[in-house]
Write a structure and sequence with these properties.
This protein is of the alpha+beta class and 191 residues long. The chain has helices spanning 6-10, 19-26, 47-60, 86-93, 110-126, 146-156, 185-190, and strands spanning 79-81, 101-104, 133-139, 161-166, 176-182. It has a domain at 77-190: Ribosomal Protein S8, Chain: A, domain 1 (2-Layer Sandwich). Helices cover 36% and strands 14% of the residues. The protein has a 5-stranded mixed β-sheet with strand order 1-4-5-3-2, sandwiched between helices. The chain is elongated, with a radius of gyration of 31 Å.
Length: 191
């Protein structure tokens, strides 16, 4: 069997070539030179930067299950406090804290509300502030009660949330939760 050479290809008549090849020949298009080099357009981050970035991302990713049902009060005001934070819960209920962030999720779907909550908490953790405590006012509304029931179950699963309490009637009552978060988990765990 005879080996094909570039001169053999060019010596063929145009009727033997496909339309594409004929057009390329008519326009005198030359093939690109072959190269066995791989070229990268973007620089890849260093391994240290990748580890740092993945660590930062893991802090902002909250895995909140919709199927988790913690022991929360069935009657009376909705409230929760982690062990050692009963005093902060009482202060929160009395309105001693200033709200840093207001989050309005009423009218949203569960997925939209969850995304908004996660996004807000991620921004809260990144926000440059000397104050370790952050107080959120979450307006979930009453409506069909889907978010009213779901948001407390999500909040219990978030490590930064140390306490939450239903707002007094004149500030939203059953449709609003006041949430106290601690920005720096490392310092919180050392205490």
């Amino acid at each position: 069997m005879k080996k094909k050479t570039p001169t053999d290809e060019t010596s063929k008549q145009p009727e033997e070539l496909s339309e594409f090849e004929a057009l390329m020949r008519a326009e005198q298009v030359k093939p690109l030179p072959k190269s066995n080099k791989v070229r990268f357009n973007k620089q890849s981050p260093s391994p240290k930067a990748s580890v740092k970035q993945s660590t930062q991302q893991s802090h902002h990713q909250y895995h909140m299950s919709d199927e988790y049902y913690p022991a929360l009060p069935e009657s009376g005001p909705m409230q929760f406090a982690r062990a050692g934070f009963k005093a902060q819960l009482k202060e929160l209920a009395k309105g001693y804290y200033t709200f840093n962030v207001h989050v309005d999720v009423h009218g949203m779907t569960k997925a939209q509300a969850k995304h908004t909550l996660v996004s807000t908490l991620g921004k809260m953790r990144q926000h440059p502030s000397r104050e370790p405590w952050v107080c959120l006012c979450i307006n979930h509304g009453i409506g069909q009660g889907i978010l009213k029931a779901q948001i407390p179950r999500w909040l219990v699963q978030i490590p930064e949330v140390v306490a939450f309490h239903e707002a007094p009637k004149h500030q939203g009552g059953h449709g609003v939760l006041w949430v106290l978060c601690h920005r720096d988990l490392d310092k919180l765990e050392d205490a």
